[in-house]
Amino acid sequence: MGSVGAKDIPQLLSPEGLRIDGRHLNELRTLSIRAGPLHQADGSAFVEWGANKVMAAVYGPREVHPRHLQQATRAVIQCKYNMAAFSVDERKRPGLDRRSQEISKVIGEAFESVVFVEEFPRTSIDIYIEVLQANAGTRCAGLVAASVALADAGIPMVDLLPAVAVGKIEGQIALDLKKEEDNYGEADLPMALVPQSGRLVLLQMEGHMTPDELARSLDLGVQGCREIYEKMKAALRDRYSTGPTPGGAA
Amino acid sequence: MSDEVTAEILTTHILDLAAEGKRLDGRGPDDYRPISLEPGFVVTADGSALAHIGDTAVVAGIKLEPGKPFPDTPNAGVLTTNAELVPLSSPTFEPGPPQPGAIEVSRVVDRAIRAAETIDLTRLVVTPGEKTWVCYVDMHVLDHAGNLIDTAALAAVTALAHATVPARRFQVGESDYPLDVQHVPIECTFVRLGDTIVVDPTFHEERAAQGRLTVATDELGRVVAMQKGLVGAFSPDDVKEIVNRALRHGDRMRALARGGPA
Fold first, then answer.
1. Sequence ranges of the domains in chain A
2. What is the ipTM of this complex?
3. Nearest-10 Cα torsion for A30, A179, A191, B86
4. In Å, how far from its chain's centre is CA B29?
5. Which of A57, B8, B52, B195 lies in disulfide reach of B36, CB 3.0 to 4.6 Å?
6. Domain B8-258 grouped into CATH 3.30.230.70
7. pLDDT (tens digit per residue) in B187-238
8. B87 interaction partners in chain A (CB closer than 8 Å)
């Protein structure tokens, strides 16, 4: 949603209604998910989604650090989303920033809604998301990776959490924005779905949409999440049908 | 998070095996784990590589941006090296500011790259005293199964060897050009296990070790950087032997770092 001079705005939709990478409005970017690429973590997953590359690892249930966060009746979920310095065009200074902290918080809360935290009192389930290459939609890619990593770690959950962003480009509702569409589009609406219940556990929005556009966006997002859900399940099936030996990262 | 425990019985077993010249994973004392390199792993970087030594994995990314030279070196560009031991890579790493371990990895890799004159810093200068390229080398540890220094260094030099100066993007020149890499330093790390000195230690071998020594060499056969780490000691004869072994491994690994697709 950058406010850039009009002449800089690229054409995001062709006369035929195709997007800059040739996709239809309701089409996802290519998505590949690999469960269990890391060796130290209790669970891990690597997601390549369009030009995004995101690694997630899960440790736990384990001792809570810092200790005062411990809960007597349930596990706490601690999520850290981090971007590598070289993951974006302009080098990102390493370390915590407000954006990463907010994303960590909403992703952690999304997982608290589906993990059976009461099964593991006085423990922590730690989720680490590392964005290695970013091209819009990294929080959704991170969520998908973390969700598969949680399953890989054997953490009991209501369901996996597929996630995707819907946006508006040149007045049209479009699924799964890439960077140019995110920068120059009119709205961005990331969401994460619990497929079994059909409910959303992460939902953010920025931009301009009418109530009707928003309604259509939610429907399109849910449809996209269901497609992603199948790929998440397939990644886990792949990992455990070929045996439990972890392969190399990426 | 508290340090992960390497059981006493495992430590004893590692030392007993080493006394017979054997290792837990079947390697000999002078064998590296399998090495793989993937240059160009991250397209948002100006140069990048994913390096694996065994199960240890590090991604290095190069970023070049125009900046100002330091006032005391108006004719030299700026090189900044940084390693992140993110908590994803090991149960022993905590989130937060860089730990001493991460700082040691960054500094040892930085010393080798700088001392070997991997890149000619004077050629990064655009206008002396005014404008130069700043070269950032960022190393991101993904999986820590031992010997981070060698893996991080290999990722870093491979990324540099395949880097492009983004002159067009920053309107410093007409077109982008390859970063000129004149020397390629290779770091080789050894640990003492009793009377045996083994190369490329695993995580548990590092825990059992009585001293660690890293030696960086370049293709001219020069030693360009060293770092002794962990508790323990080496005799001058040990050091001489380690340098000779590092030179041999360096030649083989340098060919890997230089090769591969751009």
1. 23-241
2. 0.87
3. 90
4. 21
5. B52
6. yes
7. 999 999 999 999 999 999 999 999 999 999 999 999 999 999 999 999 999 9
8. 59, 80, 126, 128
